[in-house]
Amino acid sequence: MEARRARAGRPAPERRSKGLSLGGPPAHDLRSILNAILYVDRTGIPWRYLPHDCPPCATAYGYFVHWQKDGAFTQLGGRLRRSVRRSRAITPSRPRA
């Protein structure tokens, strides 16, 4: 998708505080999108079988792909790990090579 945008002369979407910069405010609450992503991860169901109270599967999957490419889940895991270690007074470990 980013290659298609680059060919069209448009910049790739950037992460902002309110969601992806796709031209307007997000149509769905970011918390419900994250809950849908976590639901798929936890249950292992295909995206198209998300419950009806979740955002549309294309929306949830689109955010998942963008956040995965952006490294948001890796950053979140690192921040959570540091937070837990601080709360338990464990010294941070160095990344393994």
Automatic annotation (TrEMBL):
Positions of region (Disordered): 1-27
Database matches in InterPro entries: IS402-like_dom
Domain Insertion element IS402-like: 13-76
Source domain of life: Bacteria
Alphabetized Pfam families for the sequence: DUF4096
Name of this chain's protein: Transposase
UniProt source species: Microtetraspora fusca
